[in-house]
Give the backbone structure.
Amino acid sequence: MLLAIDVGNTDTKLGFFDAPHPDALRKTWRIGTARSRTSDEFGVLFGTLFRSASLDPAAVRAIAISSVVPQSDAALAEASTDYFGCTPAFFSAATQRMIDVTTERPKDLGSDLLVAAVAAKAKYGTPLVALGFGTATTFGAVSREGEYLGNAIAPGIRISIDALVDRTAKLPQVALEAPNGPIGRDTVSSMQAGIVFGFVGQTEALVARMRHAIGEDARVIATGGLADVIAKHTSIIDAVEPHLVLHGLALWYATTNGNA
C-alpha cells in the first residue's frame, strides 16, 4: 500500500509496506541517486523494481518521501502522480508535528536526520542518540523530554576513504573491514585499522559527549549502510536499524495520513 522513499546524497532507498505501519515492511531496494533523473526514468525504474519482486505497482496507494536532494523532488512528485496515481507526501522539519525541534533553524534540518529520530524515539524511547552512517556520519540528539536538540555532522566513511586514496599516490582502495588489531602489518591492513578503528573512536567519543549532555542512559541507535561495520567493534551502539528512515516515514504517514 505505502511506498516510502528515502533520497540521500549517494543512494536512494525504497520500501514497500503492505500497510502504512513500520512493522509491515515487505520489500526494500537501494539505487544510486541521480540528480538529473527524469520523472519518466523514475517511473520506469520503479515499475521494473516492483515487477522483479513480483509486486504490482498498482498496489501502491500512498507515497511518503524524505529527500535531501531538492533537484530530484519535482521529478519524483511527477513520477508518483503519472505512474502510481498518488500525490506524494514529503516529510520535512517544517511540516512534521511528531517531534519538537529546538535547533536554531529547524527548517534547515535534513529530513533524513529528523525522520530517523522519529522512528528511533517511537521504538526505543528517550533520551537517545540517532547515528547515521551514510555520505556523512551524523549524530542526532533527542532529549529526555523528546525534543530534537541538534546534531553533529562529520565526513562519512566512504568520503574519507576516497579523499585519502585521491590525495595519496600509492594507497589503494581497500575493503571496509577491520584487521585483526589496530596495528597494521602492511598497507592494506594499516589503512583498514586507521579507518575502522578511527571511526569507532570518533563514534565513542561523540556519543560519550552527547550522553554527558542529554543523559548517560541515552540509547544509541545506528542506521545507514555502514552501521554494521562500526557496531561490530564497539559496545556503545545499542541497536542497528538498517531501515530506520523508511520505518519513520511509515510511522509518520500512519500518524498523519500524509498530511502533517
The domain at 100-247 is CATH 3.30.420.40 (Nucleotidyltransferase; domain 5).
